[in-house]
Amino acid sequence: MAVIAWWWLLTVVVVAFHSASSAVIESTWEVEYKYWWPDCKEGIVMAINGQFPGPTIDAFAGDTVIIHVVNKLSTEGVVIHWHGIRQKGTPWADGAAGVTQCPINPGETFTYKFIVDKAGTHFYHGHYGMQRSAGLYGMLIVRSPKERLIYDGEFNLLLSDWWHQSIHSQELALSSRPMRWIGEPQSLLINGRGQFNCSQAAYFNKGGEKDVCTFRENDQCAPQTLRVEPNRVYRLRIASTTALASLNLAVQGHQLVVVEADGNYVAPFTVNDIDIYSGETYSVLLKTNALPSNKYWVSVGVRGREPKTPQALTVLNYVDATESRPSHPPPVTPIWNDTDRSKSFSKKIFAAKGYPKPPEKSHDQLILLNTQNLYEDYTKWSINNVSLSVPVTPYLGSIKYGLKSAYDLKSPAKKFTVDNYDIMKPPPNPNTTKGSGIYNFPLGIVVDVILQNANVLKGVISEIHPWHLHGHDFWVLGYGEGKFKPGIDEKTFNLKNPPLRNTVVLYPYGWTALRFVTDNPGVWFFHCHIEPHLHMGMGVVFAEGVDRIGKMEIPDEALGCGLTRKWLMNRGRP
Amino acid sequence: MAVIAWWWLLTVVVVAFHSASSAVIESTWEVEYKYWWPDCKEGIVMAINGQFPGPTIDAFAGDTVIIHVVNKLSTEGVVIHWHGIRQKGTPWADGAAGVTQCPINPGETFTYKFIVDKAGTHFYHGHYGMQRSAGLYGMLIVRSPKERLIYDGEFNLLLSDWWHQSIHSQELALSSRPMRWIGEPQSLLINGRGQFNCSQAAYFNKGGEKDVCTFRENDQCAPQTLRVEPNRVYRLRIASTTALASLNLAVQGHQLVVVEADGNYVAPFTVNDIDIYSGETYSVLLKTNALPSNKYWVSVGVRGREPKTPQALTVLNYVDATESRPSHPPPVTPIWNDTDRSKSFSKKIFAAKGYPKPPEKSHDQLILLNTQNLYEDYTKWSINNVSLSVPVTPYLGSIKYGLKSAYDLKSPAKKFTVDNYDIMKPPPNPNTTKGSGIYNFPLGIVVDVILQNANVLKGVISEIHPWHLHGHDFWVLGYGEGKFKPGIDEKTFNLKNPPLRNTVVLYPYGWTALRFVTDNPGVWFFHCHIEPHLHMGMGVVFAEGVDRIGKMEIPDEALGCGLTRKWLMNRGRP
């Protein structure tokens, strides 16, 4: 085992912190569009208090976070989702438009108040329309007062992808008949900084003579280099909020010890690079044990789709390095379609010692077939032949007040609607239905979800889908090839040390199994984290403990739209 | 007098029609973005039921119009204003966001229901953000069952200007610090059709050989030609919903007899071309008495600003014309800065015989100084040193429910705040204030408004501002040069036969006087109809009969935002 001595072997006792000494972190955030140069070309970003990306929330487990979000947009609503925070007792603060709350109208303020109950590396982002793609995101770090990892310093690396086409135009393109695909991103960004149409490393291809990048140190697109001292251990907190791209990150000349995934410690393992899908976070420990007179590339490239986007680069900058720039070309991103390599990475991830094992058995099982389809010639993504149409009235409110016309009361199918569906071929019937039905679960049961991938509408291809569950961590029980065989493939599940996560990748033509406990009364979105896919209906909704929702205190301000608005306006009237 | 015999000399008895035989015109309109080719280049328009411009409403005076507006946008609110309709008894249906209603949220439906009480040529348009500029507009024709004009046929000509930059980008540009001006429009459109970067008439400049326009007859940008028979009289109903451009319209080889302005008959007069400002409508009668074997250009060009936009052209097409296209170049638009010519046109407009004269005296007078200023280095337009900041909670609702924190209770000044203000120079103090205060008027009084123009922030220039009043027609009492002299200039007012209008132009460095009766309980927007100017705060608000508003039935759906939403949700609770 390649475990080395400089990091502490993790044994974790998961503790929730609600101590009396918890702090309150309170902030007012004004959201507006702003001109910005994320990739050295002027564009328009969604900024928070004039910053892009938004401010980092830095809290301790048990703290209460209060964010007053002021919508300063001209005509658009907005919400913010706190990705990875379970929102126990505060489902209305989850920030998913149409699911847990109404969009905040222009000029209005909505207050999110929630407890960050356990330590972890998280982020936040817009969850209305495609506003995440417009740059509405930032880091959300929750520290443990009793951190089990030993390190000397840390860096946040928030990864994203960037288009020059506005999100309004992208939304229209995707919603058009026929659909117009938005294409690959123009740039990858590290902490909101990238370089379009120039590469910091270009001089390697030009005989070492010329650097085609003309940004200056203070430019908005100039990379933030990571300044490190030799022979120290650094924690890199890495989050991917990409709209589309699956990424790979490497630090030249350095190994990475993976210690955390989605806010949960994992059994440490050492790699040269990590794959990271949209919605995922990782912490890796990096020892600065390379030659300290050199500089080293930190490189982020595209995997899983044929890359048309240059690598994002920044520099690991030893403080006493004599080089002006790294003397070698940046690490080459592993070839995009080497899926076996990707799977090999995923399969290295296990829970750290001390984490509770999953329950041995599940009480319920969903098998969710992911297909690309047509609905009246609009291109859609469907789950068990339903493309999700998020209603105007948030489920949380319509359930609380028993407003039965707010959404489809019939739940979608729990498994394939076609028995002998051949996942290796385009759908025999290309057409799908649209719906707003949800899955209802009682509290305290164990649910298995099998995500089943399939061939897309045309051609021989199956796409990557990173699925993200709100309000929960789940155990990743396993990945398999081809079509899931109920009653058989369950036997391959890892029940010993599966990692707890909130996002998991579904590989082409394969399946992914996860298990969770319905321990959080509320309504929770479960969806592909690829922004265009979600926009095209790729999600389902879980309601847990419906009777408890009825008794929950939900701020009226969260429900001031659609049928809940009407209900609340007539409440108490004869 | 150049009056000719083929049109009937107008004597009007103004009648309001509320007869039992009135019809109900009911329609459901879905508003969404759509790809379109308004000027032979692909852009994105706001379409209604897939159409651009929106459907024409064709009603008779006394009819009830019911439009269910369904917001199919992704994240944006929307409203529709029925420009020229007085909304007597239905101020909540006026469709001015923040003034008379809340924006309709995505996925929601709002029903406008109002009576079109008198005949006239009107239009409708978006009144939230800069959605009018995105193409949210259409014609609204109200006919009289006893039409006094005699004509054989009619055409609607809805004029607009078009940018290739999206409205979201335009809004940001105008709201940025420093402000970025959006520039002149790329195209002028007639009924939503124009030609970018090509001129139908270009072959005149190219030796008659080549037509650079490549559109085909069925293209979205192909002009609708006006097919006419010889020796007939046609009514052209012309409306301008431009965001910026002041226009001039001419029909080659034909004279135009102006008979209607803003829904009111005027004493007919004959011209070769008409000026039309944003927010205005005209009807002109045209006799097809030219050589019927020829074709003739209908030409629309820019006035009042240095034109950088090609003329919009279509063809008056005699049914038996043997020409394939007009044999002569289109009429030349009068030079843009010949303001005297423009004024001369305005001053030809008088009420038709039989219209009631204005009251002899006014009870109140506002003198509204129009200035361009800075607010914290943002560029703004101000009225008496207040740049209007439209509140989130619609005035109509906050007044009805007595919600005093919804807007500034202090009214803005009724006249210049600086006594010796020199309108010929840039403002001595460039800074302005922002506010949401309104002017309150009791019912049944006569109010004079003097619009006073001035020099802009920089340079020696004063801009044109067409002012539009909601909920009313007003009498245009006169235009003057320089600074209005209270107590003196009133003597020049035309009290004999001033035209009734809802929009009037304020010329550079001059003043315009208008008079209206506060006969319509409600809250009414009065603002510059130039979309960017309004976006930068150029408007005021009049409340009439505040006590009556308290007793008015206003649909809750109009008030489901801001403080009225909160109030309505808590209504009836202990």
From TrEMBL, chains A, B:
Primary location group: secreted
Gene Ontology cellular component list: extracellular region; plasmodesma
Pathway entry: Cofactor degradation; L-ascorbate degradation
Organism: Arabidopsis arenosa
Subcellular location(s) per record: Secreted
Description of how the protein assembles with itself and partners: Dimer.
Residue intervals of the Plastocyanin-like domain: 31-146, 155-319, 415-545
EC code(s) of this entry: 1.10.3.3
InterPro entries in the cross-refs: Cu-oxidase-like_N, Cu-oxidase_2nd, Cu-oxidase_C, Cu-oxidase_fam, Cu_oxidase_CS, Cu_oxidase_Cu_BS, Cupredoxin, CuRO_3_AAO
GO biological process, one term: response to virus
Reaction it catalyzes: 4 L-ascorbate + O2 = 4 monodehydro-L-ascorbate radical + 2 H2O
Name this polypeptide is given: L-ascorbate oxidase
Signal peptide range in chain numbering: 1-22
PANTHER family xref list: L-ASCORBATE OXIDASE (PTHR11709:SF302), MULTI-COPPER OXIDASE (PTHR11709)
Function: Ascorbate oxidase involved in a redox system involving ascorbic acid (AsA). The oxidation of AsA represses responses to high salinity and oxidative stress conditions such as vegetative growth and seed production reductions. Negative regulator of defense responses toward incompatible Turnip mosaic virus (TuMV strain UK1) by preventing jasmonic acid (JA)- dependent accumulation of ascorbic acid (AsA, AS) and dehydroascobic acid (DHA).
GO molecular function terms attached to this record: copper ion binding; L-ascorbate oxidase activity
Gene3D superfamilies xref list: Cupredoxins - blue copper proteins
Family affiliation: Belongs to the multicopper oxidase family.
UniProt keyword terms in alphabetical order: Copper, Disulfide bond, Glycoprotein, Metal-binding, Oxidoreductase, Repeat, Secreted, Signal
